[in-house]
Amino acid sequence: MAPQQRPSRSRRRLACVAAVVAASAALASGTGFAAGTGVVRAAGPSAPAPTATAPTATAQATPAPAQTAPAPPAPAAPRQDTPAFGAYLDYSARGVDRIAELSRWLGGADLRVGHTYLPGDRWSNIAGAPTFLEAWADWRRERDDRMFVLNVPMQERNEEGVSDAEVRMLLRKGAAGAFDHHYRRLAQRLVDLKIPDTVIVLGWEMNGTTYTHRCGPDPEAWKKYWNRIVTTMRAVPGQKFRFDFTPTRGRDAVPWTECYPGDDTVDVIGMDAYDMPRGMSFDEQVREPYGLQAHVDFAKSHGKPISYPEWGLFRNGDNPEYMRRMLAWMDQHKPLYNTLTDYCPHGVWQCDDNPESAEIYRSVLSGRPDVPQPTPDPTPTEPTVPPVTPPNCSPLELGDWVEYWLGGKLCLRFDWFSRNW
């Protein structure tokens, strides 16, 4: 996974003002704008952006003192009607760092969910390699209301195209207890890191064909193996794990309901829901067999919360309608959490391929949950630095009210004639 960095964006504000009479008239009429050139604004409160220019002068802004960016507001208590959300940003410590960056892009939104995956290449990594989870554990422990979501494979060589026959044999070995010690070790590591309440997405997308931990070759053995892993990890003292059963949306290779291991070992019923296949509308994604509505109904019938550990764009490209509808769907059905897969082609922040969907995501989620903002003081305040009048410039006395809305005093340069000839 190689996420892309979004290009930084800068803004440039041009300073323009009106001729003296026009400026006074416009401000007196309540427009709050000044047009023209050759008038200088002294340091003071920000004024609205100009809309026009006049041919008789040149704008020159008074130098302003360097300012330190204000500290971000303290996070508010999570709103009860706002689903906890985050994004998959990278599997390593870089993913932790990018949580704060994504929050800033979203206007200070409170991303309370961190999400990563254990490597599925070998058992030593599935059991939790030294130092791999430390940065995530540090992030989780910083605040009590945060949630750490960890995808855990059920087999090594998890993406190596292992045959159905071998998968069937491995599932049966797991159901008989051959791999218990790996999961006991992982559980102990999570407890030792003081993240015993980790949400574990175990054997995700089991109804497909991608992973060695798929269910299709032997659903009964798969369910027994799931139950064995959960029982083993729950036996470790101090654990508070929640286990998330997460198929991919739709039927795929096998109906995911045939893989459900039972209410005793499932705490959350998730779904990985991407915008696919090509040409399928959001309404069809809701109505299809084993689709979004079936997921919600199944979880309700079993008394379980839902989740969306993976979701995002895919076969239909930059699809703002999907983005709008999926966000509204989650607002309606209140999953325990959701985490957008934020790399190309699925994402919106680390992927420049989906600008229209990015605008929808950003506009809907910016600032969540609501953070109280300070009430502005309607009384004009004096500049903290005395106004500086440039040379060859005559101050114009327009009154306190006009100067407040302009952001300071105006002055007319004497040398505009010579500089324009």
Task: Characterize this entry briefly.
The protein is an alpha/beta fold. It has 13 helices and twelve strands.
Describe the structure.
The chain has 421 residues and is of the alpha/beta class. 30% of the residues lie in helices and 12% in strands. It has helices at residues 20-28, 93-105, 123-126, 134-141, 164-175, 180-192, 219-234, 282-287, 292-301, 320-333, 355-365, 400-406, 416-419; strands spanning 39-41, 84-88, 113-117, 147-152, 199-202, 242-245, 268-270, 273-274, 306-312, 337-341, 393-396, 410-413. The strands form 2 sheets. The chain has an 8-stranded parallel β-barrel with strand order 2-3-4-5-6-7-9-10, surrounded by 4 helices. Strands 1-12-11 form a 3-stranded antiparallel beta sheet, with no helix packed on it. Strand 5 (199-202), helix 7 and strand 6 form a beta-alpha-beta unit. The model is unreliable at 1-80, 370-391, 400-407 and 413-421 (pLDDT under 50).
